[in-house]
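This section describes the prediction task in plain terms. A model, or a person checking by hand, is given the sequence of a single protein chain and must write out its three-dimensional structure as a string of tokens. No templates, partner chains or ligands are provided. The sample shown here is typical of the held-out split.
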Amino acid sequence: MDEQTRTALEAAVFRRLVAHLRERTDVQNIDLMNLAGFCRNCLSNWLKDAADAAGVPLSKDQSREAVYGMPYETWKARYQREATPAQRQAFETSHRHE
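The expected answer:
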């Protein structure tokens, strides 16, 4: 597979993952962290890191909006629930947040 095709496929996979996470607002970031070791915020940070490395201007707020599909504060107000004690305990023991 050539580099251009690989990059296009990887971009398509990223867009599909982001679209899936936008639809699954019932899945909390802490659940993603506890199960997979990354969350929506990680994705937005990785996007910003890639933009910075490429010299593309992208703010933290812009990268979060690109992942969440809306301003982060709006998403939090609409969909984020208080973490349960079990979720917090699992998060504290996992130490996997990037």
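For orientation: The chain has one domain: 3-94.
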